[in-house]
Amino acid sequence: YAGAASTSEYSSVKVSRNIEATQNTKELQDLAISLFREKYQGGAIRQIGISGNQLSDSSVRQLSLFESVEENQTNKKQESLQKAIDEIRETFDFLSIQKASSLSEGSRVIYRNKLIGGHAASQEREEKDVS
């Protein structure tokens, strides 16, 4: 779901896609970006939502007849890597492991992580608490 900044001027856009079951974060991110770019027509965006349904147990995996052994091994390695990253973040915090691009000039990952839900409302609350 991608909603425009002003619902009185613009309508919302919804798009969906059925995919094979995956836990691959990169694959899900790429799909979300692709769907957004497919429908985005310019202008301010107020809200973007992503949801999933027909979820399945991660211990069950449907193998594809068309997936090579190498692709299967690559997928297993990526799943193991993502699981390790998730465990590190659970044990420490979200910022304990990040991509190097998070440190580049203009990146807002670290700044936004300190906000409640990624919004400046938490700063306003902190300022009121200090007063």
From TrEMBL:
<dbReference type="Pfam" id="PF11799">
    <property type="entry name" value="IMS_C"/>
</dbReference>
<keyword id="KW-0239">DNA-directed DNA polymerase</keyword>
<dbReference type="GO" id="GO:0003684">
    <property type="term" value="F:damaged DNA binding"/>
</dbReference>
<dbReference type="GO" id="GO:0006281">
    <property type="term" value="P:DNA repair"/>
</dbReference>
<keyword id="KW-0548">Nucleotidyltransferase</keyword>
<protein>
    <submittedName>
        <fullName>DNA-directed DNA polymerase</fullName>
    </submittedName>
</protein>
<feature type="domain" description="DNA polymerase Y-family little finger">
    <location>
        <begin position="7"/>
        <end position="65"/>
    </location>
</feature>
<dbReference type="GO" id="GO:0003887">
    <property type="term" value="F:DNA-directed DNA polymerase activity"/>
</dbReference>
<dbReference type="InterPro" id="IPR017961">
    <property type="entry name" value="DNA_pol_Y-fam_little_finger"/>
</dbReference>
<keyword id="KW-0808">Transferase</keyword>
